[in-house]
Amino acid sequence: MTGWRALDAELARWAEAGWRCPLWLRDDDAVAASPELERLLALCASAGIPLGLAAIPADATPSLAEPLSAHRDVAILVHGWAHSNHAAPGEKKAEFGAGRPAEARRADAARGLDRLRGLFGDRVLPLFVPPWNRLGRDMPALLVEAGYGAVSGFGPRPAVEAPPGLRWLNTHIDLIDWHGGRSAVDSEALLGRLCRALAERREAPADDPPGAEPIGLLTHHRVHDAAIWRLLEALLDRLAGHPAAAWPAPGSLIGLAPATGHAP
Ligand SMILES: [Zn+2]
Asked: Rounded to an integer, what distance in angstroms lies between the CA atom of residue 169 and that of residue 252?
């Protein structure tokens, strides 16, 4: 339990300073209502935290709106278009990588936002989540043209500046060990990453910690096994109600009005 004790100690340092670290939860690949989605929504509701739910526009069905109707703090994000891999053989999977013509990528990003808005109205934020968290370097500018105000990948923000009008809201802590059995990541390794992310923000000399870049947790409800659910529950148990943790809605994190929870 070393990692959990280290997390408690790090959070105590924030609390002593009177600071709260912003955190958010992004869950990817939503397409329809399911028992797994219900479980995720219930977990977020009991923890009292909002959720950014990245839906695949081409596959999304109206049934997704039903479980969300009881959960006002859930915003729908745009997860690419069809989660199709367009990368060349041997390259890492990507739907919006630089290998595709820019116009095709811009058009797919625009119709993803249009389709989800048509299905779910103002529950949808103009926040683009590229499948596999991969984007061509020219994609941020294309996203602005396609109507987006924010983009969310994984890990540190890229060195390229976002164009005016576009904000980054990345995730940093993936609960799934994609390359080692697709169950939960080793909790000690995850807690080490989480503690480092907290400490970096607390110690950042030029940054006021309360205004630090939010730390994003990343889940995929459709493929969670028992171990992944347990890890998520344990994390939220520790983090959701802690006085050193803040859980602003994704819309407010990117300077947009939060989803109001009213479907058309
Ligand atoms: Zn995905």
From this structure: 11
4 lies in some domain: no
pLDDT at residue 262 in the model:
37
pLDDT digits (tens, 9 = 90+) for 163-192: 888 999 999 999 999 998 899 999 999 999
Range of the domain at 120: 20-253
243 within 8 A of 199, measured Cβ to Cβ: no
Q: Ligand 1: distance of its center to the CA of 160 in Å? A: 23
Beta-bridge partners for 52: 26, 75
- How far is ligand 1, taken at its centre, from the CA of residue 220, in Å? 8
The answer to whether the beta carbons of residues 28 and 60 sit under 8 Å apart is no
140 and 162 in contact (C-beta within 8 Å)? Answer: yes
204: CA distance to ligand 1 center in Å?
Answer: 31
pLDDT in tens, 30-54: 999 999 999 999 999 999 999 999 9
How far, in Å, is the centroid of ligand 1 from the Cα of 154? 12
- Give residue 30 CA to ligand 1 midpoint distance, Å: 9
In a domain, 3, yes or no: no
Please report whether residue 50 resides in a domain. yes
Number of domain units in the chain: 1
* Widest distance between CA atoms in the chain: 52
Cα–ligand 1 centroid distance for 28 (angstroms): 5
For residues 230 and 187, give the distance between their C-alpha atoms in angstroms, rounded to a whole number. 10
> Residue 241 C-alpha to ligand 1 middle, in angstroms?
28
The domain that holds 170 is classified in CATH as 3.20.20.370
Q: Say what the pLDDT of residue 156 is.
A: 86
